């Protein structure tokens, strides 16, 4: 069992942690990851095979779920690509690791050590079981901690990733922690949905999403201000807002829809919400 000393959580929002602790039977994550043991807590990008919507009723749902999961894995691959040619002796931190999907994909591609950090105890237990089943428990480990207040020494990591988790934390605080943890020249890669404050500082769509997930979506400009403040220099920024729309269109057709699909689609279509990939290096 993972250590449950809640003192490591620091100032993390207890309402956000409570949201995830309560979701022990989460169909969206559990049903999509069952085929390959890659359980994600983020969303997908790219298009899907539209012919599946015309499949017979007894096959349609299975095909939709398979496509949604393919889109989730495709999203994680843009993080892997942004990490570049990471040597196998590298050490990577997955900040907000959930049930381990991103961590395992990093370990599989690069053969490196990965430390997942998460404040949800049953997610850690779940991910540790998969690591043992894969025979990876020695190099993919999961820690009960707030990613803004980790137990690791300075300059412990060659790379850090956050996959749709920064809307759950104070980004100035967490980027300060990432800068402490990265060696000079180390790489940070984030995928995030954020408010496009060039269009609307806090649109109705973003408010509905915040209420659904008990989070606080950040303005796009705040990311770059916080990165600069902590010596994290962006070298790659890409907007995948259009590519994020098909996932939500397809999920709206599935039995897994929860009602948050409509505000995501509204926000992306009107561009009041952006879906970004940001890669930066520590000075």
TrEMBL record:
CDD domains for this protein: AdoMet_MTases (cd02440)
Full protein name: SAM-dependent methlyltransferase
Superkingdom field: Bacteria
Lineage of the species this protein comes from: Bacteria, Bacillati, Actinomycetota, Actinomycetes, Frankiales
A Pfam short name: Methyltransf_25
Stored Gene3D superfamilies: Vaccinia Virus protein VP39
Organism, as annotated: Protofrankia coriariae
UniProt feature coiled coil, ranges: none
Methyltransferase domain ranges (all copies): 92-186
InterPro entries cross-referenced by the UniProt entry: Erg6_SMT_methyltransf, Methyltransf_25, SAM-dependent_MTases_sf
